[in-house]
Amino acid sequence: MTSTLEAALMRLQYPDQLPAAGANLSLGRSLSAIRTHLGMDVAFISEFVDGRRYFRAVDASAPSPPIQVGQSDPLEASFCQRVVDGRLPELMTDARLNAEAQTLPATQQLPVGAHLSVPVRLRCGRIFGTLCCFSTDADPSLGHRDLALMRVLSDMLADQIDTDLQDQRANNAVQSRLALAMDARHMRSVYQPIWNLDTHRLLGFEALTRFDCDPQRPPDQWFHEAAATGHGTVLEIRAIETALQALAHIPDDLYIAINASPLTVISPALSAVLAQHPLHRIVLEITEHDAVDATLYNTIAAVMQPLRRGGLRVAVDDAGAGYACFKHILHLSPDIIKLDVSITRDIDSDFSRQALAAALVRFSESIRCSLVAEGVETIAELATLRQLGVQLAQGYALARPMPLEQALRQIDTATRA
Question: pLDDT tens digits, residue range 209-250?
Fold first, then answer.
């Protein structure tokens, strides 16, 4: 596994708490507003976790405040804990005059003069932490209206934090599922043969991914969920690594076709993985149903150029499925075009599908590109495709996706034939 992928997998492990980066801009703006209104030096939101106080968001008047986001200290040694349990009042115009505050080193070390602190209580009743403001100087002008404003803001922040935590828990659940799915015990590759219909010769296999874990669902749903949560490239790279292991076991004249989205194609992790294998035995199928920005096309071409010089072939998937696919073909100049299942399905009885397939045959010939029909399920479909001039195909009518061991037997049968 590449170091890039390892780092990405490490990031799949998050605690069920507000992200330590405290990057929520609304929290920062709220802290800045209350600190400025009260004329304080520092405002922060703390979180209580396992006996420690973590600073999740900080706003300060000075460029180098005494506390930073992500820092933590023992909860018992903090003002926050004493405010929550009632040992300190929520409002102190001068903490140095309070006997309990005098027992805390921070009172003299910072020092702490004026101090306001209110609990941040979530909808479930749990105290998340505190909203605090303090200054190094005393401020006798602070009063109950200021404290009331802090409480109102604390309630507002609690609602926002509740929402953030809910989103974080949902994201954690996705990450846990993906981590399980990427385990070698639960992810496997199956291989669907690709045949030359004229010579009856086996050319290679398209590698497809299967997941043997809960929730039981089609593979495309795993990849869609990963992409929607920002983990698509990690999952795709792991699937590609798994698929390419077959190259060491199949004859040198056969290739493996792998699938990757545009974002994965431009990832350095993919180039690093491909560089470990003979490029002339790999076909990279770029899968994308939506239009791609022109800048991304340029980036893909730049990334693919040295790999294609090394022998890598590029395929565009789902030809005929929509306008976006034709843009992919025009911009990427593929070596192979994959005729979408929506065209091959019932092509034997649908004149429109036959006309479109025939046009794509002529188009692929004119640009010196191979055309592979995918999703061929019946002998009638297969016969029609051959009549239309489609030479390469894959699908249930020829062979289903199969484990590597079965694929090797298929190779042996094809060789004897």
Answer: 999 999 999 999 999 999 988 899 999 999 999 999 999 999
pTM: 0.72
Residue 221 lies in a domain: yes
The runs of H, that is alpha helices, within 194-293 are: 219-228, 232-244, 262-265, 268-274
CA geometry: angle 111, 117, 122, nearest 5 deg? 145
DSSP letter assigned to residue 280: G
Closest CA to 317 of 389, 384, 396, 262: 262
Residues facing 227 on adjacent strands? none
Under DSSP, the state recorded for 19 is -
Those residues with Cβ within 8 angstroms of residue 73's Cβ, 6 or more apart along the chain or in another chain: 52, 53
Residue from 154, 164, 131, 149 nearest 25 by CA: 164
Same domain, 160 and 201: no
Q: To the nearest whole percent, how much of the chain has pLDDT over 90?
A: 74
By residue range, what is the domain housing residue 345? 183-416
Report yes or no: 222 and 211 within 8 Å, Cβ to Cβ.
yes
pLDDT in tens, 6-21: 444 443 333 344 544 3
Listed residue (130, 131, 73) closest to 105, CA to CA: 73
User: 169 and 217 share a domain?
Assistant: no
Contact 341, 220 (CB under 8 A): no
Question: In the beta sheet, which residues pair with residue 136?
Answer: none
- As a dihedral over the C-alpha atoms of residue 228, residue 230, residue 236, residue 239, rounded to 10 degrees, the angle is -90
CA distances from 39 to 29, 32, 33, 137, 238 (A): 15, 10, 10, 11, 53
Confirm if 259 and 191 have CB atoms less than 8 A apart: no
Strands 201-211 and 42-49: unpaired
For residue 134, which of 202, 63, 42 has the smallest C-alpha distance? 42
Torsion of CA 10, 16, 22, 27, to 10 degrees: 150
Cα gap 285→103, rounded to integer Å: 67
The CATH number of residue 291's host domain is 3.20.20.450
Closest CA relative to residue 174, chosen from 121, 245, 238, 222: 222
Domain count along the chain: 2
